[in-house]
Amino acid sequence: MPARLRLRQLEALECVAETGSMTRAAEGLGISQPAVSRLLSDLASEVGFQLFDRRNGRLIPTQEARFLLPDIHRLLEMLDHIGEVSRHLNDRKAGHLRIACLPGFATSHLPGVLARFLAERPGVTATIEPDRPERILEWIVGEQYDFAITDSFDAHPAVTSETISVRSVCVMPEDHPLLAREVITPADLADQRLIHTRRDSAFFRELNEVFLSEGVEINSIVETRQFTAACELVLRRVGLSIISELDAAGYAGRGLAFRAFAPAVPHRLALVRPLHKHPSMITLEFMEIFRDSLRAFELATGPAQGGGTAPP
């Protein structure tokens, strides 16, 4: 079996074929003329046929060499492309992101962050897949996605996660009388119809406990899994809602406004990725940028914004 051909031999063959000269090929390759001659001699020995004829002082590829040259050209182009892509990957300018998220994030906070990220990285592409938390966890455990945004959950041995507590606010039509208050309490909502998350959700259980501790019963009108659906219903004056400030901010100035809600009922998010899958540099960079985008909404960072404009 012939020895494996070396890349430098193929480069020498192509360069001499293009220039017709050992001297010019040596200059193009940045090596000595004897080195080019040795590369071609070794290559001819390995392939078992002559590579060049000399005519009128010029080296002309033999018929066999001409047959090889198109494949050699494609191979060298492919290697150049691989090198370029590798540089882009190293510079975080190329790659593909696979993101799973809660349905509300697919239409609220995530698109803006992702759009800015992609605008600065023309070689990066992305997939967004919204679904319920149970399915998202299955995907991450199965390493089908690089990164996910979901509700917080009990620890899982195949997942690494960070829990973030996002402030919750009371969202209402922008002409509602309760906007006169800086902070909304359960007592303020005793006579208001409320749109809220499903009764089996951790967020609703905590919200309900807060209301009961204040001696107020939630006046339920609609249950929904998604905060964005709650916003749409509030916009249509079905009732008011206690939701994540992340979702409320997306509706500020669009007919809705919001005020801080107390006692605090945080919406606990989990940023997760597969534990045993090595993350790409693009994934780690996007996770860091997305994490930073949440800091203005964290419970510990201060009071919620209100009125008709979203926080910066």
General description of the model:
It is a single chain. The protein has 312 residues and is α/β, with parallel strands linked by helices. It folds into three domains: 7-90, Orthogonal Bundle (Arc Repressor Mutant, subunit A); 94-165 and 268-301, Periplasmic binding protein-like II (D-Maltodextrin-Binding Protein, domain 2); 167-266, 3-Layer(aba) Sandwich (D-Maltodextrin-Binding Protein, domain 2). It contains eleven helices and 13 strands. The protein has helices at residues 7-19, 22-29, 33-47, 63-90, 103-106, 109-119, 133-141, 202-213, 227-235, 245-251, 281-293, and strands at residues 52-55, 58-61, 94-101, 123-130, 147-151, 159-166, 168-173, 183-184, 194-196, 220-223, 240-244, 256-261, 267-274. The strands form three sheets. Strands 8-12-7-11-9-10 form a six-stranded mixed β-sheet. The N and C termini lie far apart (67 Å). The relative contact order is 0.13.
User: Unreliable stretches, pLDDT < 50, 5 or more residues?
Assistant: 305-312
CATH topology of the largest domain: D-Maltodextrin-Binding Protein, domain 2
Multimerization state: single chain
Average pLDDT figure: 89
Write out the CATH superfamily name of the largest domain.
Answer: Periplasmic binding protein-like II
Q: Please tally the helical runs, counting DSSP H or I stretches of 4 or more residues.
A: 11
From the spread of the alpha carbons, the general shape counts as rod-shaped
